[in-house]
Amino acid sequence: MNATAANPARALDQTVRRQPVGLVFCCTILGAAAQILMKTGANHMTHAGIMGMLTNMPLMGGYCLYGLSTLLLVLALKDGELSLLYPVIALTYVWVMVLSYLIFHDNFNLWKVLGVAFIVVGVTVLGKGGQS
Amino acid sequence: MKTPVSHMLLVLLASFIGSFGGVFLKAGAAQVRQGWIYLFVSKQAPFFNWRLAAGVAFFLLSSYFFVLGIRPPGELSVLYPMVALGYIWTLFWSRIFFKEPLTRLKFIGLFLIVVGVFFVGLGSR
Fold first, then answer.
1. Contact at 8 Å (CB) between A41 and A63?
2. Residue A1 falls within a domain, yes or no?
3. Which of A89, A122, B85, B121 is most exposed by smallest CB count within 10 Å?
């Protein structure tokens, strides 16, 4: 028997609870893109100091993405549990690792792959913990 | 282990400050009116959503101490897991300030994430 179809109130409740996790998921992708942009900016840093930072487009783009990511986090926290959503941010590690492999050709090793696997499983378990 | 204790304390401090960033964003989020344009406009007097501003400030301060901590000779393998400790502080703040239930699945999920971040740190040497 389909439990959600039998209980519309519960179905609605589950949808409301799932959306914040989706928002934080987007947050982590934006956060990872921000980190990659900041790393690119840091690599191309010609001169230090505040003007050097302000004229550094990738660096500033990174900060903007961080701002956007924080905005999504606030929207998510409006309806979601902090204890559930805050650790989901750890997914950022996963995207950063994949992106830095693709863009900067950073090395991949067993520990990193194992770490990513644990984080993904951990976030999944955590997500289940919030729905019960 | 080459990482000095002072660098560990800096990253620990960063994780602690960062966890309060989450707490203030959560407190501020409850005050946000409908529509993102009102982000820093609170529902109640004094109408400036200082909690959100405080949350952002805590995050910026946290990243400052984090960067100080991961400077050489700080090793990411030691310091990354300490960042993940921030998730554990947050679990307790969620319980204390927002009365969120701490389920067994939350503890298991968090434990797996912390172990995962530890492994990522090991792989980043």
1. no
2. no
3. B85
Q: Is the pTM of this model over 0.80?
A: no
Residues of A with CB under 8 A from a CB of B: 70-71, 73-75, 77-78, 81-84, 86-87, 90, 93, 97, 109-130, 132
For the cut 60, the answer to whether the pLDDT of residue B49 exceeds it is yes
Closest CA to A112 of B114, B118, B74, B84: B118
Boundaries of domain holding B116: 5-123
Q: List pLDDT tens digits, range A59-83.
A: 889 889 988 998 888 888 888 888 8
- Count the domains in chain A: 1
Does A11 map to a domain? no
Alpha-carbon distance of B38 to B45, in angstroms, equals 14
pLDDT in tens, B65-81: 888 887 777 777 677 77
Interface touch B105/A70, C-beta < 8 Å? no
Distances (CA, A) of A59 to A29, A67, A87, A105: 17, 13, 26, 20
